[in-house]
Backbone:
């Protein structure tokens, strides 16, 4: 079975995709997200930056059960642990052997939502004898994946980096050291956002090094984010960069590389966390989680490479079988109308605003 594109290019049938980077959250939000996620995706990498973060095999198992309760049993949650300075390698082994662990997520401390428990010093990833180093050795041993939030907060001299330079610095200074220290480890660079990142991936991609791309980084550049005033509902970590970065990411997505795949980074926050003094990074994307990517691939003239990107490359890298189900998409405008409601006593904490609210999406799930 392979993808089929109708003669007019306005209908597409692909294997059911996998979302290799998704924040499903918990409680009522998870219920809302789970339904929309399972409609579009056969499975997803479930991010561990909950509160508290997922740091034990028992937490992995409990969270997996919660996810399945929200998505239904045909959905495949690919679970992750949160790398802290004290994560226990024995827990990694246990979670991998018994609880569907796909990988471990590295968060640089303080650089994104719920990253306070992240690794304090990136050098511990390549310094033998540190706990994170031992965890990565265990991970390689278990043939599981290290997922990198590819950002540095500080330069070697201790000065704070410009937020637009965090990924570039990481790709130049940190990523090569991790790769060199752990040659047997599978590494996925998450939500790539810069042309330097794209160039590094083009030059170094392999069965041990790949990356995920979001729809927002393929569709937007910072002119969109700042047009008429700053738009908190276009605020993510990593930050949306320049047009030239967007174009380099599009080239990478359209290249047909087997080491580049879909990771939406859908990350819902209540409006009260977005329209406030300090806006949280992250936006709900799942309501159009595959449709926005179809729009991007259509724009790029690369719909013939869409199925591999969305449904085959990610699972193959992680050693997961692709889905034998399919989904159909049609090129048809629809307007995002629905906001999502959760229970809260606090003002504006009871509503989640999805990406593109009140605006058009160019592709639609076929009925
Ligand atoms: C994510 C979140 O809200 O959990 N936010 C984001 O801007 N992407 C965290 C993350 O993936 O960095
Ligand atoms: Zn994320």
Residues:
């Amino acid at each position: 079975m392979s993808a089929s594109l109708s003669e007019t290019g306005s209908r597409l049938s692909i294997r059911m995709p996998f979302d290799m980077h998704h924040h499903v959250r918990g409680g009522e939000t998870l219920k809302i997200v789970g339904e929309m996620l399972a409609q579009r995706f056969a499975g997803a990498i479930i991010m561990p930056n909950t509160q508290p973060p997922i740091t034990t095999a028992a937490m992995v198992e409990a969270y997996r059960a919660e996810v399945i309760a929200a998505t239904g049993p045909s959905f495949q949650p690919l679970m992750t642990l949160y790398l802290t300075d004290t994560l226990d390698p024995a827990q990694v082994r246990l979670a991998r052997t018994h609880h569907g662990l796909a990988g471990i997520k590295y968060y640089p401390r303080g650089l994104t939502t719920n990253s306070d428990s992240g690794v304090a010093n990136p050098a511990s990833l390549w310094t033998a004898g540190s706990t994170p180093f031992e965890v990565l050795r265990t991970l390689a041993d278990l043939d599981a994946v290290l997922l990198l939030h590819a950002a540095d907060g500080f330069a070697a001299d201790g000065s704070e980096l410009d937020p637009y330079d965090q990924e570039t610095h990481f790709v130049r200074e940190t990523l090569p050291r991790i790769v060199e220290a752990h040659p047997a480890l599978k590494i996925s660079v998450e939500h790539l956002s810069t042309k330097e990142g794209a160039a590094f991936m083009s030059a170094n991609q392999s069965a041990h090094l790949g990356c995920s791309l979001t729809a927002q980084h393929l569709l937007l550049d910072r002119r969109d984010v700042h047009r008429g005033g700053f738009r908190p509902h276009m605020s993510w970590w990593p930050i949306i960069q320049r047009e030239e970065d967007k174009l380099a990411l599009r080239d990478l997505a359209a290249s047909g590389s087997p080491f580049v795949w879909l990771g939406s980074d859908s990350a819902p926050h209540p409006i009260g966390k977005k329209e406030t003094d300090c806006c949280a990074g992250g936006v709900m994307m799942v309501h159009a989680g595959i449709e926005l990517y179809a729009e991007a691939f259509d724009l790029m003239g690369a719909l013939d490479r869409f199925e591999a990107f969305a449904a085959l490359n990610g699972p193959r890298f992680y050693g997961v079988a692709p889905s034998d189900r399919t989904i159909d998409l049609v090129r048809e405008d629809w307007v995002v109308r629905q906001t999502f409601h959760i229970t809260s006593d606090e003002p504006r904490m009871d509503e989640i605003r999805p990406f593109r609210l009140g605006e058009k999406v160019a592709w639609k799930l076929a009925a």
